[in-house]
């Protein structure tokens, strides 16, 4: 009896997910719905449950059955208003289920072909230069190692960060910068300083999975605002939330977002910032990928358009993944952020800060960035063209403006990405499955690829193998 009840609720859950895809436009009118066999495989349910799902959609006028052809999305009636989208409602980020927890744990583990992370091979970074600077400064300034780590960070580094910020439209006081153990700690401190358990935070969707789990750990609720066709957040829906006082904060990677790789245009950033200020919404921005932008000019952060925005960044995506030096700037919350930092991790390694400060001061960082951007752009283009060449018709792939990653979207219902993830792992190929980038199953047909480890024959073979598995999944469906 318990099994029957579970299956009974399962068909309803699947039907609601398909309705959501219809409401959002991902499944337009007259598009083919997944077959009974595909649904059963994708969601690990019986053929009976899969058929009941499609019949339910038909009974509720979301689907029509066509003899010998299958089920299709019903034409949208004129003047019919669809219910409010599920993803416009505040929801708690659920605890990780066993499978998702396994996937996240495996993402950081070693594998033969590293397509899962969002960083690159050591050859991309000035690790020898940083190592030399740390040895020299450790020898010439032993106090950098011997003194107690205290305060808000190494003053010369904070001054260099403030100086560089002018180039991307931000007039920042170095006294309002705090150095952290990576950008993730900066974001966590900013959230803790500005929100309380139960508050609602708007995020872009798809959303970087670490941010989603951070919100869960802080007992915050989220509203996921899906990206528009341009690849960045739907500005109208986002600012509507501000105007309705529906959220207390907006957590954003607005420059080279993760995983789509797009930046919000300056005009839209200015509008979002203005609406946030007028409606007392705190903007917390993760700008960790801003320096990797491929364009001639680095994109402006939201902080350039509002002095109230909290700006978080760091050097792990540009200097080296192992350099866990981040920073946070706030004009309004620095005292509280500094207090939280002291009682959380107290301080940050000064020697690493000093080495980065010297790299910035000498101009070595700018020279390195020019090379890094060229290499990343080249590697992204190689991988993107390979996906378009090898993957089945109907596959969509993002066109990033910077960063390391590509977002691959298969036709809805054509792929069980959780099964693909495990199959790829068993073959030594790492990918980031799409379901970890949302609070529900809306990206079960998507996955993220990392191009940061270069383009070579082994990587190309891995892309071909993924494409073959995806084609097989479609054929069997």
UniProtKB/TrEMBL annotation:
Residues 8-76 form the HTH gntR-type domain. Pfam families: Aminotran_1_2, GntR. Signal peptide: none annotated. Keywords: Aminotransferase, DNA-binding, Pyridoxal phosphate, Transcription, Transcription regulation, Transferase. The keyword Transferase applies. The keyword Hydrolase does not apply. InterPro entries: Aminotransferase_I/II_large, HTH_trans_reg/aminotransferase, PyrdxlP-dep_Trfase, PyrdxlP-dep_Trfase_major, PyrdxlP-dep_Trfase_small, Tscrpt_reg_HTH_GntR, WH-like_DNA-bd_sf, WH_DNA-bd_sf. Coiled coil: none annotated. GO terms for molecular function: transaminase activity. PANTHER family: HTH-TYPE TRANSCRIPTIONAL REGULATORY PROTEIN GABR, TRANSCRIPTIONAL REGULATORY PROTEIN. In the C-terminal section; belongs to the class-I pyridoxal-phosphate-dependent aminotransferase family. This is PLP-dependent aminotransferase family protein. It comes from Pantoea leporis. The lineage of its organism: Bacteria, Pseudomonadati, Pseudomonadota, Gammaproteobacteria, Enterobacterales.
């Amino acid at each position: 009896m318990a099994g029957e009840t579970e299956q009974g609720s399962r068909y309803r859950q699947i039907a609601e997910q398909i309705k959501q895809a219809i409401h959002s436009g991902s499944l337009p009118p007259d598009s083919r719905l997944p077959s009974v066999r595909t649904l059963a495989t994708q969601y690990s349910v019986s053929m009976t449950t899969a058929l009941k799902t499609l019949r339910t959609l038909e009974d509720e006028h979301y689907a029509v059955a066509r003899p010998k052809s299958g089920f299709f999305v019903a034409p949208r009636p004129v003047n019919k208003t669809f219910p409010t989208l599920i993803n416009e409602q505040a929801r708690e980020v659920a605890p990780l289920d066993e499978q998702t927890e396994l996937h996240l744990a495996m993402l950081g583990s070693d594998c033969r072909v590293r397509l899962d992370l969002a960083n690159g091979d050591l050859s991309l970074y000035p690790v020898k230069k940083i190592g030399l600077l740390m040895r020299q400064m450790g020898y010439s300034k032993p106090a950098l190692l011997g003194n107690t780590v205290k305060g808000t960070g190494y003053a010369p580094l904070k001054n260099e960060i403030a100086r560089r910020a002018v180039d991307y439209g931000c007039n920042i006081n170095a006294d309002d910068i705090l150095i952290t153990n990576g950008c993730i700690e900066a974001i966590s401190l900013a959230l803790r300083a500005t929100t309380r358990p139960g508050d609602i935070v708007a995020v872009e969707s798809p959303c970087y999975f670490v941010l989603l789990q951070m919100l869960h750990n802080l007992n915050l609720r989220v509203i996921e605002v899906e990206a528009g066709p341009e690849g960045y957040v739907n500005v109208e829906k986002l600012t509507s939330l501000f105007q309705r006082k529906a959220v207390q904060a907006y957590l954003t990677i607005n420059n080279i977002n993760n995983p789509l790789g797009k930046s919000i245009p300056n005009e839209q950033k200015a509008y979002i910032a203005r609406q946030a200020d007028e409606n007392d919404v705190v903007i917390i921005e993760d700008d960790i990928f801003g320096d990797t932008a491929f364009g001639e000019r680095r994109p402006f952060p939201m902080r350039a358009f509002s002095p109230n925005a909290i700006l978080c960044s760091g050097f792990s995506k540009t200097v080296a993944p192992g350099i866990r030096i981040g920073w946070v700037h706030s004009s309004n919350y620095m005292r509280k952020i500094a207090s939280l930092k002291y009682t959380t991790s107290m301080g940050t390694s000064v020697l690493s800060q000093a080495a980065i400060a010297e790299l910035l001061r000498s101009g070595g960082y700018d020279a390195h960035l020019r090379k890094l951007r060229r290499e990343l752009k080249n590697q992204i283009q190689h991988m993107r063209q390979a996906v378009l060449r090898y993957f089945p018709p109907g596959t969509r792939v993002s066109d990033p403006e910077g960063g390391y990653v590509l977002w691959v979207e298969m036709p809805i219902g054509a792929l069980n990405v959780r099964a693909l993830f495990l199959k790829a792992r068993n073959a030594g190929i790492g990918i980031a499955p799409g379901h970890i980038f949302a609070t529900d199953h809306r990206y079960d047909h998507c996955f993220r690829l990392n191009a940061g480890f270069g383009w070579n024959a082994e990587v190309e073979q891995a892309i071909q193998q993924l494409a073959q598995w995806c084609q097989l999944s479609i054929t069997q469906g």
